[in-house]
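B., you asked whether I could sanity-check this one before it goes into the benchmark set. Here's the sequence:
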Amino acid sequence: MESLISLVNRLQRACTALGDNGEDSALPTLWDALPSIAVVGGQSSGKSSVLESIVGKDFLPRGSGIVTRRPLVLQLHRIDEGREYAEFGHLPRKRFTDFAAVRKEISDETDRETGRSKQISSVPIYLSIYSPNVVNLTLIDLPGLTKVAVEGQPESIVYDIENMVRTYIEKPNCIILAISPANQDLATSDAIKISREVDPKGERTFGVLTKIDLMDKGTDAVDILEGKAYKLQFPWIGVVNRSQADINKNVDMIAARRREREYFAQTPEYKHLAHRMGSEHLGKVMSKHLESVIKSRIPGLQSLINKTLIELESELSRLGKPVATDAGGKLYMIMEIVRIFDGIFKEHLDGVRSGGDKIYNVFDNQLPAALKRLQFDKHLAMENVRKLITEADGYQPHLIAPEQGYRRLIETALVTIKGPAEASVDAVHGILKELVHKSISETLELKQYPSLRVEVGNAAVESLERMRDESKKATLQLVEMECSYLTVDFFRKLPQDIDKGGNPTHSLFDRYNDSYLRRIGSTVLSYVNMVCGGLKNSIPKSIVYCQVREAKRSLLDHFFTELGKREANHLGKLLDEDPAVMQRRVSLAKRLELYRAAQAEIDSVAWSK
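And here's what the prediction gave me:
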């Protein structure tokens, strides 16, 4: 069971070293979950003397006013033999065998944090004491509660101390050791007052009554010690501290403990309570109770650690990797992030993610609808056919068939297909741009670096625009090819019989009669529809080849080429992560290290059910 207290000691040290003190954290902290014993009392309540009696050494700073200005986490380790020594958490490799030097170091370390003013700090000092005269126990000595500020202290000191004490003792895993002097009215006890506020039922409060030997003659503390005056769940424990004269004479602590035992055993009022009085008994009771509480909390600790590990790893994953320090590392990092984006973009095109189907919709619905809206039959109405045929003949009428008229009718009809062809190119370009922006937003790694996100977006759009221009050129060339060379079979199949207006002996007026012109219009419409059907299939092929295929193959080729030419400082500008995010990642990494260590520590401790 001793290993349980040692376990908590190690975890508390790790919490402080890695900044997990329960302050300013959005996540539940391990510090808050660890069972602890907080020593609470007013100034001159005998709090320091109680702690020194439990330890058996003079080691705490003394003086007037507020002496304890930082929480002191006092970790006691029982050793079987050897010389007593102390170690500080901030001086891990230095052993103190002179406890006067321990007192001085506590004062010096307090001043390092607060300056030589009388300010207070919530950052704890860790002190471990190894001795054969102690029990395994951890106590947190808090600044003494006060009612007025003294010279050199801010007016808020009363509230500041009370607030610090409350932040410790209001936690449900904190055991409160409330120190009250017996020579003062218990109703005015600072320790009892604040303990009652956070633990009204007294379920985790131990009452300690000091200065019993200094009570007025004819009075005693029996009612308090028996729980009649103020009842707590646990029995009150009385202690007799060394007097100021004993302290001045450097009376040995072991001798003081012996005199304390004799006092309770020989004083008639307290004889029946002597077996549960004294600082030695207090230490043993607190050690046993702390072990019991730790044991009961271990399943909850394990659950908290496992849950927090998942939360920390998830948030770290969301924040992404830290920025590399060297140019090569930065270049590799940028390329990896951009490849992730490129992969997501391709997944959209290939149907793994949504969006690529919109391109098919352009070819299957938008292009055919646009071609249908051209209404070639209106273009080839009687009056328009007559006008174009006549104009094509010029001053000399055609002899057999109006070939130039046919060509002009066909060319003017086919040219109108350029509109839907260009519209299809632009529609696919718009979809590809949309997929680029969507892919950027889905690339979590790009969210860390605003400059890189903008640069990649701009480079991708510029690349798409170049592909759009090439696609438009190639697609319009398909239409121009059809305009520049008509299919020969079309002319060979033209009717030349007399009934259909092909007889050259007819007059010029007869040659432009309605029946003849209607036949020309019908033939041209048939040809244009044939060509239109072919372009309806070839235009999508051209667009896919020039835009979609190229976007998959070389969307960021130009970006990669330019990236290789950049200097280290330019690469660093692309990875301009928000400083708050960087600090958050460092903080989370430290906490993750702490919780993994805590998980290993708890798993390694063998404890009985």
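One thing to flag: The chain is about 60% helix and 10% strand. Otherwise nothing jumped out at me.
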